[in-house]
Design a protein that fits this description.
By secondary structure, the chain is of the alpha/beta class. The protein is built from nine helices and five strands, in the order E-H-E-H-H-H-H-E-E-H-H-H-E-H. It has a five-stranded parallel sheet with strand order 2-3-1-4-5, with helices on both faces.
């Protein structure tokens, strides 16, 4: 089974790459952030450990975790963020590996090749290189990323810069990636770049 990892800084446009791979090439996407959110739901493997670390005050009246409150507790507090990441990242990795195993079983059962894509901003930091055949780095200029984040997430410029500063440096992404996808242009331009990589 072919497994590609897609990574890049916040606002780089990783979701565009995922959409193209899914729609055009039939890829099975595994989104680390989405899986992390699922695991933090009541009954998920991260729910109880998060409550244990941050206290009952992070549980909303409806019984679900208050993600905004948790974000506020870890924002600017490296120790708290490390504790949260120490719960979520290993659980997400375990779940992704379990889903890949199910896809491999599906491939064996049906005799049809399966193509999986793992998307995460911290793909390299979390050590996914050992389960991905290739790592694609989605690059966009700083100003493009800021403008996207302000438009799609309502971030202030200051918040954009703070989030971007907390992520891996561009040079390190480029050094460790198998391929670099430039994403300052149109979707069509991205489709052309991906087509070349898929040949």
């Amino acid at each position: 089974m072919k497994v590609i990892g897609v990574t890049g800084g916040v606002g780089a446009g990783k979701s565009t790459v995922l959409e193209i791979l899914e729609e055009v090439y039939g890829a099975k996407p595994l989104l680390a952030d989405e899986i992390g959110r699922e695991l933090m739901e009541p009954g998920g493997t991260c729910f109880a450990p998060v409550v244990k670390v941050f206290g009952e005050t992070v549980v909303r009246p409806d019984g679900r975790l208050d993600r905004g409150k948790i974000a506020g507790l870890v924002f600017g507090d490296d120790e708290a963020l490390d504790r949260l990441n120490g719960i979520i990242h290993p659980a997400v990795r375990q779940e992704i590996e379990a889903r890949l195993d199910r896809l491999r079983e599906e491939e064996r059962r049906n005799g049809v090749p399966v193509f999986a894509v793992i998307e995460s901003a911290i793909l390299l930091e979390a050590g996914y290189e050992d389960i991905c055949k290739e790592i694609w780095y989605v690059y966009a200029s700083k100003e493009t990323r800021i403008s996207r984040l302000m438009e799609t997430r309502g971030y202030t410029r200051e918040r954009c810069l703070k989030v971007m500063e907390s992520q891996m440096e561009e040079g390190e992404f480029k050094r460790r990636a198998s391929a670099i996808l430039e994403n300052d242009g149109s979707r069509k331009q991205m489709e052309i770049q991906i087509e070349k990589l898929m040949i």
